[in-house]
Amino acid sequence: ILMSLLLIATIFTWYSLFTPKPLPVNVSRDSRWFTTQPASTCQRAENMVFIKTHKTGSTSLHCIFCRYGYANKLSFVFSTRNTINGHIRKENLNQSIILPPIGGIVNSSSKYNILTGHVSYKRETINSFMEANPIYVTILREPAAQVESHMNFFRHRKQVMASMQAFLKNPRTPGDAESRNNQLREFGLSFESTLNETTVNETIMRLDQEFDLVLILEYFDESLILLKNLLCWGFENIQYLAQNQRTTRETITDTFRHN
Ligand SMILES: *[C@@H]1O[C@H](CO)[C@@H](O)[C@H](O)[C@H]1NC(C)=O
Ligand SMILES: *[C@@H]1O[C@H](CO)[C@@H](O)[C@H](O)[C@H]1NC(C)=O
Ligand SMILES: *[C@@H]1O[C@H](CO)[C@@H](O)[C@H](O)[C@H]1NC(C)=O
Ligand SMILES: *[C@@H]1O[C@H](CO)[C@@H](O)[C@H](O)[C@H]1NC(C)=O
Ligand SMILES: *[C@@H]1O[C@H](CO)[C@@H](O)[C@H](O)[C@H]1NC(C)=O
């Protein structure tokens, strides 16, 4: 009897320890992310725009989109001028610099399924050559960690540290802006605009409306589950190997993070 009681007590303790508590905040903003329907009742997304940001784990995500598009014979937006990886980067977005889609250009119109390389976010222009209603996603990262990664990857450490000190003295100097506010600047804001807090707030609110999903590097796996539900994909579609990761990283001091 004693053993049974002990066993019951143990089971009860374990049960109360591991029963999930309700989430403290109301996160059910968009039912597409949290669908409980089986995958067979939703439609797999084929048209998507991934605005690839720098030093945010975006290459791991890029590979997921590339693999899906390759396996499903979808057409990608790749620049004719960048033979390394087809990224468009800051080049003037113009259909004449994009490789033709699968099947070639028909009646002088060409439509694409997937845009996943670096590109500046110009929604109207992008929509003009994408198939109808693409899903827009991007990925962001905690800013101090992103700056540290950015300055080390681009070997800007000295300039960035110098500009951090300059920043302390005069936060509105636009010089040496390479690693500053660049997560927001990837969405089309000029450096000067990022110094206007009203513009920054308005831009964040607009982007929040325009994007279907913003993944967060610190919650990469959780973000992938939301992506899977949004695109009506299976688990096999979101398997990944981390790409482009460093083995060493610098300590970020509280002062650096605060600045
Ligand atoms: C959570 O959000 C949904 C949808 O906006 C709303 O209907 C519901 O009342 C909210 N629940 C709470 C506890 O705020
Ligand atoms: C795109 O590039 C072509 C060729 O360089 C040019 O003729 C055309 O005007 C450009 N279109 C836009 C919208 O910039
Ligand atoms: C291309 O144009 C021709 C002639 O107008 C038309 O017959 C054909 O259906 C068009 N093809 C597509 C794929 O729209
Ligand atoms: C911008 O948003 C932040 C966070 O919500 C807020 O603290 C700040 O007052 C806002 N600034 C302006 C100028 O609206
Ligand atoms: C900041 O942006 C707002 C909204 O675009 C504008 O009304 C305001 O004049 C700007 N402030 C400065 C100092 O440029």
Automatic annotation (TrEMBL):
Instruction: Output the superkingdom of the source species.
Output: Eukaryota
Matching Pfam families: Gal-3-0_sulfotr
Keywords in UniProt for this one? Glycoprotein, Golgi apparatus, Membrane, Signal, Signal-anchor, Transferase, Transmembrane, Transmembrane helix
Q: Which Gene3D superfamilies match?
A: P-loop containing nucleotide triphosphate hydrolases
Q: Report the SUPFAM superfamilies cross-referenced here.
A: P-loop containing nucleoside triphosphate hydrolases
- List localization entries: Golgi apparatus membrane
Question: Do you know which InterPro entries this protein is assigned to?
Answer: Gal-3-0_sulfotransfrase, P-loop_NTPase
Q: What is the protein's membrane topology class? A: Single-pass type II membrane protein
Q: What is its main location?
A: Golgi
Signal peptide annotation: 1-18
Family note: Belongs to the galactose-3-O-sulfotransferase family.
The protein's name: Galactosylceramide sulfotransferase-like
**What is the organism field in this record?**
Saccoglossus kowalevskii
Lineage, broadest ranks:
Eukaryota, Metazoa, Hemichordata, Enteropneusta, Harrimaniidae
